[in-house]
């Protein structure tokens, strides 16, 4: 208690002290304690889906498809979908941790109300939860790469840069996922998460090039964050870094800034009126 009072007093006269107290690590420490007890189960099971897609589509449908043309390259279909599924794996980890996990803390356990009754500010809570979601996305990306490498799906050592790229993507999805979840009040509303996530996965070029679609649909897909994420990881995976890569990075920079702002403002409006 004395430490909490000392922190509050030290920051009382600083600009923005009601929003940010510099204690995001307290949220992460709490998540680590919960992980050791029970939350490791959904984290472990959430990684399985992209791996199953890799095995089913890559080594099942891949035998029927053969090679895929990517720009001026012709590559094996399984190699083509591997970076897309790695990006999807990181996105899944970030999305589910920043939506269902946040929804429970927000509406069931009322955990955030208790946190914001301490010297913690809404930006501390937002950053802490989002950083924890990034850890989940990072673990998924590393585990997926560890499976893809022995299967011969990694074209070069530079593909290891797909890991920080995947974490960057997860940051964007986690910040926006938490902001959106703060408006949901029932489990029925949370069902919208799955309705949105599934099309994002199926129609974003993870399993086939989007050039197969009509021009108007291809344009709409290129507006979606999942397409930018998959293309960013795929560019890094194959070493095809160009102006398009900068566009994908810029897209997620804007997404991260907007997501953090919306999440912080929403938590402040909910609990600090």
TrEMBL record:
The chain crosses the membrane at residues 40-60, 80-104, 125-151, 157-180, 192-210, 245-263. Its main location: membrane. It is found in: Cell membrane; Membrane. Residues 41-270 form the ABC transmembrane type-2 domain. One of its GO terms (biological process) is response to antibiotic. GO terms for cellular component: ATP-binding cassette (ABC) transporter complex. It comes from the Bacteria. Keywords: Antibiotic resistance, Cell membrane, Membrane, Transmembrane, Transmembrane helix, Transport. InterPro entries: ABC2_TM, ABC2_TM_bact-type, ABC_2_transport, Nod_factor_ABC_transporter. GO terms for molecular function: ABC-type transporter activity. Pfam families: ABC2_membrane. It is a multi-pass membrane protein. Belongs to the ABC-2 integral membrane protein family. This is Transport permease protein. It comes from Actinobacteria bacterium BACL2 MAG-120802-bin41.
């Amino acid at each position: 208690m004395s430490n909490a009072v000392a922190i509050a007093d030290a920051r009382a006269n600083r600009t923005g002290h009601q929003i940010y107290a510099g204690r995001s690590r307290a949220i992460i420490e709490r998540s680590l304690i919960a992980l050791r007890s029970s939350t490791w189960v959904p984290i472990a099971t959430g990684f399985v889906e992209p791996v199953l897609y890799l095995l089913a589509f890559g080594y099942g449908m891949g035998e029927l498809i053969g090679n895929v043309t990517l720009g001026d390259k012709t590559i094996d279909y399984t190699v083509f979908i591997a970076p897309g599924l790695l990006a999807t794996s990181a996105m899944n980890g970030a999305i589910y941790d920043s939506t269902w996990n946040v929804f429970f803390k927000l509406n069931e356990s009322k955990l955030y109300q208790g946190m914001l009754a301490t010297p913690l500010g809404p930006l501390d809570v937002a950053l802490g939860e989002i950083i924890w979601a990034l850890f989940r996305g990072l673990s998924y990306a590393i585990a997926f790469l560890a499976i893809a490498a022995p299967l011969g799906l990694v074209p070069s050592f530079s593909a290891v840069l797909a890991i920080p790229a995947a974490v960057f993507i997860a940051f964007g999805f986690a910040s926006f996922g938490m902001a959106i979840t703060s408006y949901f009040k029932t489990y029925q509303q949370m069902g919208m998460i799955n309705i949105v996530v599934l099309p994002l996965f199926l129609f974003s070029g993870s399993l086939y090039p989007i050039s197969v679609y009509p021009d108007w649909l291809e344009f709409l897909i290129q507006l979606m964050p999942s397409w930018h994420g998959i293309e960013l990881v795929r560019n890094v995976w194959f070493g095809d870094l160009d102006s398009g890569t900068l566009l994908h990075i810029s897209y997620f920079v804007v997404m991260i800034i907007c997501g953090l702002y919306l999440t912080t403002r929403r938590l402040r409006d909910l609990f600090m009126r």
